[in-house]
Design goal:
10 strands; five-stranded mixed β-sheet; three-stranded antiparallel β-sheet; Neurolysin, domain 3; 55% helix; Glutathione S-transferase Yfyf (Class Pi), Chain A, domain 2; alpha+beta; 7% strand; 655 residues; 28 helices
């Protein structure tokens, strides 16, 4: 496609985005009317098949409307994209509340045709019936109407919450004297103040993270920490308060003790009590380790002329210092061996070798000139499997973290052909400067590999139905295919393949890689307790206690870590996961890490870049998507029930 192509999906006016959604929803309404007209009597293709057409159509129109709300450079198009996202999400959420559709699907479920369904088709019927139950069709009419009203409101709140984070205007003016310890090229990348010699610091990750890692000025670290963790507080605090109350009310309408109980019914954990037990099992040993880690940081703080206690805005700085002094790992030095283009090449080469793929650059028009697009093929057959877009640099007003977005769902079409999936990875890595390419810290490399795990999950799927395509697993498993990818960033042999100095071309020294790997467990207690903090914050917001005091819950969760809470911040207002599908589910990052580590243990045993194991993993875990319960996928790949031994070893909690 070119810029002058009339149907160019990424060069549209706000009115054209709205019209595209109008057309898609009108067509979807027609499909649903066609389903209802069957009365539930007919074949799968006649009764349930059109719901797949609806899911496909709305998935594709999201990719060219709602998605642009996260990435487009034009603020008006972004705003229109967010409206589109809300309209699509509201329509989809409303679908399960339709009495006529419920009656039709229920009638079909009693037919002889339904009794003969197998595989994905039978699973779809099961899931649809579950959807209708969760929409309240077993409740009294008034209660069901209330659930519908509240669900619609949650969709509206979620889109607004994310918009407020993306549009937060927070900027700090930083004097040159405050930038001691910061690299010259990083300082040069900051926009100058129009009024004086200060620099403008945004809240984008390439601005914030280096300050927290490297700035010797403790006051600057405190300012940045407080500004970053107070983003969108004014508009998002009431939104979060309302959302938590709505979720609690929905749970009561379903006679469940809490939103967490309702949400976990169909996840691997099943109950919040199991999650609490999992987190409690980790908390004690991690806290013991964190006490010693904190004591070492306090010694360093005192040596710098300051006084304990170490604060939350200190720990990354002293972690960086320890890696330098205790392990000889200078993150700035390490980054010089990880220019983005080389890391990308190494990532693609690794996945090609291990999973049997071929990556080919392709010239297609997208939403920004910096986006790189790739076709992925099966190495054996040459079959084109899908398309990946890589949007890796920050831009004003766009998505502020790192994530993968499905743009076109995979599915088997009615004529038997295969609709190839299309996925975008969006990140916020440092932009290149006049004299340096984009250089990634090792943490950036981990993030890149992690998100690419989602990309692989989405683009390699072979699910026949949209409902089970790509990352359609249980929410507390969906991070496992990303968690496993992080392991390759800690393998010396893998890093040696693509880590070359951006200027000299020299390979990363073997002893530097060894020191980097040796420091992997440094301050693991403090780092993992931070994840526990976020998981517990999420659970407490959605447990059975009432009323909810957001500040008290935030403080209680912060008490999991040894850092004193900061009364000048309100982190939950910018914690996008709370409104982005991980509500009562953030524990899933640690929960699924157990499975990611366990799956990688097979690579460790049989070869970390073994194509045989890699293709088994692709077949057993990535390709099925949500066509089977996650525990079945794990058993298929591992040849046994999963366990947490590899996870505990990584944390230093087991031999």
């Amino acid at each position: 496609m070119t810029d002058d192509t009339p149907d160019d999906p990424y060069t549209r006016t706000p009115d054209e985005l709205a019209a595209a959604v109008d057309d898609a929803l009108a067509a979807a309404d027609a499909d649903v009317a066609r389903i209802v007209a069957t009365g539930g009597h007919g074949t799968f293709a006649e009764v349930l098949g059109p719901l797949e057409d609806v899911a496909d159509r709305l998935g594709r129109v999201y990719g060219t409307t709602g998605f642009l709300g996260h990435v487009h450079n034009d603020a008006q198009v972004r705003a229109a994209g967010r409206v589109a996202e809300q309209r699509l999400a509201t329509w989809e959420a409303d679908l399960a509340f339709r009495d006529d559709l419920f009656a039709t699907v229920s009638a079909f479920g009693e037919t002889d045709e339904a009794a003969t369904l197998q595989g994905e088709e039978a699973r779809l019927l099961t899931f649809l019936r579950r959807d209708f139950r969760r929409a309240g069709h077993e409740l009294a009419p008034a209660a069901r109407a209330r659930v519908r009203e509240l669900t619609t409101r949650l969709v509206e709140l979620g889109v607004t919450f994310e918009t407020n984070i993306a549009d937060d205007p927070t900027r700090l003016l930083v004097h040159p004297d405050e930038l001691d310890g910061m690299p010259d090229d990083w300082i040069a990348s900051l926009a100058p103040s129009p009024a004086d010699d200060r620099r403008i610091l945004t809240m984008a990750y390439p601005d914030v993270v280096p300050v927290m890692d490297l700035a010797r000025d403790r006051g600057l670290r405190a300012r940045v920490h407080r500004a970053f963790n107070s983003r969108a507080e004014v508009p998002n605090r009431p939104i979060l308060d309302e959302a938590v109350a709505i979720r609690a009310e929905i749970a009561r309408l379903f006679d469940r003790p809490s939103w967490a109980h309702l949400q976990l019914e169909h996840r691997m954990a099943e109950t919040p009590e199991r999650v609490e037990a999992f987190l409690d099992r980790l908390r004690g040993p991690l806290t013991e380790g964190a006490v010693d880690e904190l004591a070492r940081m306090q010694e360093l703080l005192e040596a710098d002329g300051d006084h304990p206690p170490v604060q939350a805005f200190d720990w990354r700085f002293y972690d960086t210092q320890q890696r330098r002094t205790d392990h000889g790992v200078d993150q700035a030095e390490v980054a010089e061996y990880f220019p983005l283009e080389q890391v990308t090449e190494g990532l693609l080469d690794l996945t090609a070798e291990v999973f049997g793929l071929v990556w080919e650059p392709v010239d297609v028009h997208t939403w920004d000139d910096d986006v790189v697009s790739l076709v992925v093929r099966d190495a054996d057959s040459g079959e084109r499997l899908g398309l990946v877009h890589m949007d890796l640099f920050p831009r004003e007003g766009t998505f502020s973290h790192a994530a993968a977005f499905p743009l076109v769902p995979a599915r088997r079409l009615a004529d038997g052909s295969w609709q190839r999936p299309e996925v975008a990875i969006v990140a916020n890595f440092p932009r290149p400067t006049d004299d340096r390419p984009s250089l990634l810290t090792h943490r950036d490399v981990e993030t890149y590999f992690h998100e690419f795990g989602h990309v692989l999950h989405g683009v390699l799927t072979r699910a026949e139905l949209v409902r089970f395509s790509g990352v359609a697993n249980e929410r507390d498993f969906v991070e496992a295919p990303s968690q496993i990818m992080e392991h390759w960033t800690w393998q010396s042999d893998v890093l040696a393949r693509f880590a070359f100095h951006f200027d000299t071309g020299e390979p990363i020294p073997g002893d530097l890689v060894s020191r980097l790997v040796e420091a992997r467990r440094l301050n693991v207690g403090l780092a993992t307790l931070r994840q526990l903090q976020f998981a517990l914050l999420d659970l407490r917001l959605h447990d059975a206690t009432s009323p909810k005091d957001l500040d008290a819950i935030d403080r209680e969760a912060a008490d999991v870590t040894p850092f004193p809470p900061d009364p000048d911040t309100f982190f939950p207002a910018s914690f996008g996961h709370l409104m982005g599908g991980y509500d009562a589910g953030y524990y899933g990052y640690l929960w699924s890490e157990v499975y990611g580590d366990d799956m990688f243990s097979r690579f460790e045993a049989e070869g970390v870049t073994s194509p045989s194991v890699g293709r088994d993993y692709r077949r057993a875990v990535l390709e099925p998507g949500g066509t089977h319960d996650a525990i079945e996928l794990l058993r298929d790949f591992l040849g046994r029930d999963p366990d947490d031994r590899a996870f505990l070893r990584k944390l230093g909690l087991a031999d």
